[in-house]
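__Protein archive entry__

___
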Amino acid sequence: MNRHFLGDSTVLLGRSLRHIARSPDTIITTAVMPIAMMLMFVFVFGGAIDTGSGESYVNYLLPGILLITIASGISYTAFRLFVDMKSGVFERFHSMPIARSAVLWAHVLTSLVANLISLVVVLGVALIMGFRTGAEVPAWLAVAGILLLFTLALTWIAVIPGLSAKSVEGASVFSYPLIFLPFLSSAFVPTDGMPGPVRAFAENQPVTSIVNTIRALFTEQSVGNDIWVALAWCVGILVVAFVFATAIYRRKIS
């Protein structure tokens, strides 16, 4: 039955995407909050913030906003998964001659597509607000790859509460710390001016290395070791979350 995995996943992905197309408010909601933050920080606080980089604040801010967009979007992944679990959709699919893992992977792929759309919307608004970059195609591909890997890692984290939560609120609330994490990083201000303990945390959590890498790629600067630290964080989170999520899934469908 596993030989039909790709075909089954594609069909179920189409089902999920049709649901999103019929209710695009989830993508709109996902994009609205990061856009509102970007507008507020650039036009209200931006003039008072000295990043020491000499670049416009929207250029400095955008990498962090993109990560907030992803963190906001994956809460809907957990929500959609929870709804399917509680409505009995999983049981109906599992009674059919399809690959069981395809049901779960369809939700994961839906998260990637939905978050990609939200990221494009946010990037479009940033361009209107004055974001500019001289980055060439390889740099853009590197940024896209990092964002894709980060989205995949957070999506598998979202799968865990989506499968195990007892309520809709419980399935979605996990994303709040993830949305808050960029505020304790180099996303909005340099870490140099932070108090000692806060600075130590900010410089040793995943968002800072990812933000620094994306910012360096956009500004055509050397990424240094940040890119390896960012990739290590993303892959590490992805592997751990995948192992826990698939273990929970097997227990649920056994």
